């Protein structure tokens, strides 16, 4: 039988998007544009849908887009094909995370409804 996650696990999952984006930003600032880490900023929105709702996912996506813009300017990639590709990657993953969060919330509401009907 699966164990339920505790408050510590929930806190770690809720901080994961910010932690991943911070690590990507720090490594990108350290290594520069040659490594090509900019699209990895999209990991933040990808993990955002694990906890919270669609608003949280959108908010983290907006933060990720802003971070990607700042890093692309810093790396000298703003307005280039690589810069646009990174931004589209972040926006696309945010949209996918948003869709997943909405579906998850609907399933949770349906399950809660079924559980309350049984009681």
**Count of beta strands:** 0
N-to-C SSE series? HHHH
Mean pLDDT: 90
Shape: elongated
First and last CA, distance = 22 Å
Q: Tell me the radius of gyration.
A: 17 Å
The number of helical runs is 4
What kind of sheet is the major sheet?
none
Q: List low-confidence stretches.
A: none
* Helix percent band: over 70%
- How would you classify the helix and strand content by structural class? mainly alpha
> How many separate structural domains?
1
Strand content: under 5%
If you had to describe this structure to a student in words, what would you say it looks like?
It is a single chain. This protein has 119 residues and is mainly α. It has one domain (7-118). It contains four helices and no strands. Helix 1 (7-31) packs parallel to helix 3 (54-74) and helix 3 packs antiparallel against helix 4. The chain is elongated, with a radius of gyration of 17 Å. The protein starts with 6 loop residues before the first helix and ends with a helix. The model has no long low-confidence stretch (mean pLDDT 90).
Secondary-structure map with pairings?
Blueprint: H1 7-31, H2 43-48, H3 54-74, H4 81-118
Record keyword descriptors for this entry:
119 residues; 4 helices; elongated; mainly alpha
Short description:
By secondary structure, the protein is mainly alpha-helical. The chain has one domain (7-118). The mean pLDDT is 90.
